[in-house]
Amino acid sequence: MSESTYIVTGMTCGHCVSSVTEEIGEINGVQDVQVDLSTGNVTVTSDRELTHEEIRSAVTEAGYQLAS
Amino acid sequence: MSESTYIVTGMTCGHCVSSVTEEIGEINGVQDVQVDLSTGNVTVTSDRELTHEEIRSAVTEAGYQLAS
């Protein structure tokens, strides 16, 4: 089990949170996604190591930006 | 044909605009809904006079507030 936290910018409301949660949740191996809208912190739990690029791609697909 | 502009508060992103547009668009007689996210102005075109209460109800249903 692996847990990593990322910072996503541009989310402004619950719909944004839903979009990001949904896109990241579709990555193979992801078991849980927790988003804190006020900080932009997105914590992803998965059963394998995810690459930064996989996360970045999902966040971009949802219409937001990975901060780093 | 009737056109009225309302101010809706609480919209922060395109998803919010979609929600408000969709709910107001479901009111009987509504033909067009234009939302300006930056000002909160919502312009509704309809083939009959709409009551303030009809608009308020749709905006509330979408999860936002009618300013006046």
Offer a few descriptive terms.
homodimer; 68 residues; alpha+beta; 4-stranded antiparallel sheet; 2 helices; 34% helix; 34% strand; globular
Description:
The structure is a homodimer of 68-residue chains. In chain A, helix 1 crosses helix 2 (52-62). The first copy, chain A, starts with a strand and ends with a strand. Chain A is built from 2 helices and 4 strands; from the N terminus they run βαββαβ. Chain A is of the alpha+beta class and 68 residues long. Chain A has one domain (2-66): Alpha-Beta Plaits (2-Layer Sandwich). Chain A has helices spanning 14-25, 52-62; strands at 2-9, 30-36, 41-46, 65-66. Chain A has a 4-stranded antiparallel beta sheet, with helices on one face. The model of chain A has no long low-confidence stretch (mean pLDDT 96). At the A-B interface, helix 1 of A face helix 1 of B.
Any chance you could write out the topology, listing elements then pairs?
2 copies of one chain form a homodimer.
Chain A (H helix, E strand, L loop, with lengths): L1 E8 L4 H12 L4 E7 L4 E6 L5 H11 L2 E2 L2
Antiparallel strand pairs in A: 1-3, 1-4, 2-3
Protein name (chains A, B): Heavy-metal-associated domain-containing protein
Pfam families (chains A, B): HMA
Keywords (chains A, B): Copper, Metal-binding
